[in-house]
Amino acid sequence: MKNRAAILVVLATWLIPACVWAETSPLAFVRENVERVVAVLENPDLRGEARRSQRYAELSRITDAFFNATELARRALGQRWRMLSEAEQQEFTQLFLELIKQTYLDKLDAYNHSGITYDQEILQSPTQAEVALTVATDKGPLRVEIALIQDTNGWRAFDVTVENISLVRNFRTQFQSILQSNPPQYLIHILKEKVHGSTQ
Prior knowledge:
This protein is α+β, with helices and mostly antiparallel strands. It has helices at about 1-25, 25-40, 50-65, 70-75, 85-105, 165-180, 185-195, and strands at about 115-125, 130-135, 140-150, 155-160, 165.
């Protein structure tokens, strides 16, 4: 009996992670969140300027769950991330994610509902992956690559590349131009002005 129990424990140890992995694969995670975004955009009760704030709030919640905000912020800031205190890192992370939402979420309204094709999932390591998809638009298909990392909360995105333009690299270039002659704290000040100066 003890041997059988030991075998069952070993099998459970092998099988349970495999089941969890299957349920939370990078592609499944991306698909689930994309479908949530599409559901918000296609919801007739959330359309129009009168529902803009409510629509933004729904998309904002999805974005919060989709990104590993700390990894996103760390990669965008590069080596200067270490120059911030822990409190400043947290503040920068919150401001940066909010800036991304304010910059891009309203542009999702232009989505034409033509379709999304999930092309490929690449497992680069046990904790890092990439999911490629194609988004149909009026101007032709858009190639999108989503880089993901697995943390204690499961898979989360840390970069999105659209037609070879990386979200992280794009912001890193902007941040580096500011940080060449200013300390990281000045960048936080600029982000505060941009975020709190925007009206949502």
